[in-house]
What does this fold into?
Amino acid sequence: MSAPDSTAPMPAQPRTRIRRWLLPLGVVLGLAAWWYFRPAPRVAPAMVLIPAGDFLMGDQSMPERGEPNELPVHTVEVSAFSIGNCEVTKAEWDVVRTWARQNGFTDLAEGKGKAADHPVQSVSWYDVVKWCNASSMQEGMQPCYTVSGAVYQVGENEGVTCDWTANGYRLPTEAEWEKAARGGKVGKDYPWGNTISHRRANFREDMSPSKLTKLWNDMWDKISPGRSRSVGTGYHPTYETGNEPYTSPVASFAANGYGVHDTAGNLWEWCWDCYEDYPASMQTDPRGGARNWIRVSRGGSWINEATDSCVAERKNDDPRRSIYNLGFRIARSSVPPADSRERSDEPAR
It folds into this structure.
């Protein structure tokens, strides 16, 4: 009988086979974990180009129903600019904020949103201005807002100035906002006409409750204080779900003639301007007062009644204020359309 061949390969032991699989398995698991927890991709907001031209600014209802601060009606000439076709969503806010917190914007607020596709809210004027700068820098554009010549990144500073020639994101002026909101319509209360319903916008109907409804509401308040009432609330029936706020996903309603959504209801929207009374004379690219630090907000919200959703309605707000019915949309100074998402439509008047 011959002796065993000592040069023959020994069969692999179980432990050796396990070790051979550990490295590739670790690589696969690591890649899977990276893919699952990777930061959300940065998607540039969709914008529409609003053509240059003049429009009538202020309350033009017949008979006149607006507030005194919406008068006198005056002609405003506005240069071409781009504006977000929707309010900034919570998902968009979060992507930029994650980048911003690692790049010098250390106190940028978390903000709130009912869902990723709902508009971000509970952000102050200072927060949204800093977010605009961060978003611009993340995309390699020139930020618009500075303080004493330095890019505005932290704090609440009344000395913020805007470079209107920069190509980055910014807030719309009050005049830009109203022109975009009107969608090319003249003399109308809303972006589409003179009447409003829940088919058109997310707002709170003005309901004069019956005695039975009032009794139910009073009883409900005692049973469950702080909870929304199920009868006679006037909130949009589709979006009165869960806890407040009763916001709707952006673009839930048809766009106006310029392709802009949700300028009536859902959330009030911050504008750049310091609040001031209207002049009677024609203006060109007005940018608000210089003596008042209070800022303008526009558009009404889910909790406000129909008159607050009129395109001429204007409100003044403390720039430090952050609340669940206040958000924003972005704008840019006039630039050529970058791609198919940015377009210009001059609707028929």
